[in-house]
Amino acid sequence: MMEQKVESKNQVSGQASKQRQYLIISITLAGIIILGFGCSVLMAEKQWASSAMLLRQDVADVYQSDSTVVPASQMITMDAIFEIIFSRRVLQTAINEAQAVWTPEELREMTDVRETAKGSNCFKITVNSPDRNMSAKLVNTLAKVFLDEYKALINTGVIAARERTLSNIAILKNELQISDAGADQIEQKKAEIQRQEEFAGALKIFLDGKYLDITIVEQGVPATFATRKLFWSR
């Protein structure tokens, strides 16, 4: 009977010893993991974010010759705007002008573009880099290069529309001179010529830059604090 009690006591003691060993191993492993995480955070590269805010303005409606109303602010969608910003030509131009050392692919990874709110006309470009001053310089250069590209695309479409309108005006005036139509039809042609001339004038104002479809409302500035880029976030 005494031997059974001793054996039972030894089994309990052995189990307790194993549990302590497992506990020590678990604590040791947890400590290694925490230490490794801490070291990775401390050794991770600092990242400085700088953002520029842009506003797509609601400008006067631009109507086509077929009287279909086309809001100028919707000529290029927000998704298309993002595609322009991330295009290789815009990224490479921004890199060249900012005298940065990254490739377009690297700058694309460093850049984030998003609307400030769903359906908003306001959107933000953010650049993250290890250099706080370069982040600000890059984001402002990228915003400027994007605007140049955007306006060029808009102007290309507006120039083509104005050329078509001026051609239509010339045709209408020629028809008016040789037409033997009645007084009502003549007045209709004159009214159409006037409408087309007003449209051409509106397009000329747009080309003169009196309506800026997108403007920078907030420049990027050097960040006051940094985040760290961990290895698993690359």
Question: Tell me, what's the shape?
Answer: elongated
Distance between the termini: 66 Å
Number of helices: 6
Spans of 5+ residues with little confidence (pLDDT < 50)? Answer: 36-44, 59-74, 230-234
Q: What is the ordering of alpha helices and beta strands?
A: HEEEHHHEEHHEE
Helix vs. strand class = alpha+beta
**Which architecture name of the largest domain does CATH use?**
2-Layer Sandwich
For the sheet with most strands, the description reads: 5 strands, antiparallel
CATH-assigned fold name of the largest domain: Bacterial polysaccharide co-polymerase-like
Mean pLDDT: 76
* Beta fraction: 15-25%
User: CATH class of the largest domain, please?
Assistant: Alpha Beta
Helicity level: 55-70%
Rg on CA atoms, Å: 33 Å
Number of domains: 2
Outline the structure in words.
The chain has 234 residues and is α+β, with helices and mostly antiparallel strands. The chain has two domains: 1-43; 48-233, 2-Layer Sandwich (Bacterial polysaccharide co-polymerase-like). It has six helices and seven strands, in the order αβββαααββααββ. Strands 1, 4, 5, 6 and 7 form a five-stranded antiparallel beta sheet that branches. A hairpin with a 6-residue loop joins β4 and β5 (122-129). α3 packs across α5 and α5 (132-178) runs antiparallel to α6. The longest helix has 47 residues, at 132-178. The chain is elongated, with a radius of gyration of 33 Å. The two termini are 66 Å apart.
Describe the structure using short key phrases.
single chain, 234 residues, alpha+beta, Bacterial polysaccharide co-polymerase-like, 2 domains, two-stranded antiparallel sheet, 6 helices, 7 strands, 17% strand
